[in-house]
């Protein structure tokens, strides 16, 4: 189950700029909406589709058949790469995959249907597969 869009309007995107004046905090998707436990991003990073998939597989393996997973991020931004040993210049490289920009505060994964200890261990393992700092959060009852 690889994550990538069915169709894209533009093959290549501009590289996103980092505005120092912008508040580097997520405003959407910051609360647990579906499950009981979630994995929250605590730093800003671009996350590639294969990293999201690796984290999802780890969670799915821990949950078994009882639990449910929600993936709250989707990689819709293409990234390009030039072939190895190519000189500088000569235009932008070819698209090789998809990524998404994740800001601090974003809930990336949610799980439900298992006990707290198993859930925390599953989310901890998933966090090691991602290139950013994460925190395990639970729904406030």
Can you walk through the features of this model?
The structure is a single chain. With 141 residues, this protein is α+β, with helices and mostly antiparallel strands. The protein has a domain at 37-80 and 96-138: Ribosomal protein L16/L10 (Aldehyde Oxidoreductase, domain 3, Alpha-Beta Complex). Helices cover 20% and strands 27% of the residues. The strands form 2 sheets. It has a 4-stranded antiparallel sheet, with helices on one face. A 3-stranded antiparallel sheet has the order 2-5-4. Helix 1 (49-63) runs antiparallel to helix 2 (116-128). 23% of the residues are buried. The mean pLDDT is 91.
Please give a handful of descriptors for the protein shown.
141 residues, alpha+beta, Aldehyde Oxidoreductase, domain 3, 4-stranded antiparallel β-sheet, 3-stranded antiparallel β-sheet, 2 helices, 7 strands, 27% strand, globular
- List the strand order in the largest sheet: 3-6-1-7
- CATH uppermost class of the domain at 37-80 and 96-138: Alpha Beta
Percentage of helical residues? 10-25%
The count of helical stretches stands at 2
| Portion in beta strands | 25-35%
- Low-pLDDT runs: none
Rounded radius of gyration (Å): 17 Å
Order of helices and strands: EEHEEEEHE
Structural class: alpha+beta
Shape call: globular
CATH superfamily of the domain at 37-80 and 96-138: Ribosomal protein L16/L10
The largest β sheet comes out as:
4 strands, antiparallel
User: What's the architecture of the domain at 37-80 and 96-138 in CATH terms?
Assistant: Alpha-Beta Complex
Overall mean pLDDT stands at 91
The CATH topology name of the domain at 37-80 and 96-138 reads: Aldehyde Oxidoreductase, domain 3
């Amino acid at each position: 189950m690889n994550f990538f869009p069915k169709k894209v309007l533009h093959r290549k995107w501009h590289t996103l700029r980092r505005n120092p004046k912008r508040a580097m905090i997520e405003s959407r998707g910051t609360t647990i909406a579906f499950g009981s436990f979630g994995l929250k991003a605590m730093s800003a990073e671009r996350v590639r589709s294969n990293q999201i998939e690796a984290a999802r597989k780890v969670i799915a393996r821990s949950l078994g058949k009882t639990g449910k997973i929600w993936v709250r991020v989707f990689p819709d931004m293409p990234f390009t790469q030039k072939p190895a040993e190519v000189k500088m210049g000569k235009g932008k490289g070819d698209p090789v995959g998809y990524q998404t920009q994740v800001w601090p505060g974003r809930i990336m994964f949610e799980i439900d249907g298992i006990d707290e200890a198993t859930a925390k261990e599953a989310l901890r393992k998933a966090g090691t597969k991602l290139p950013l700092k994460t925190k395990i959060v639970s729904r406030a009852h």
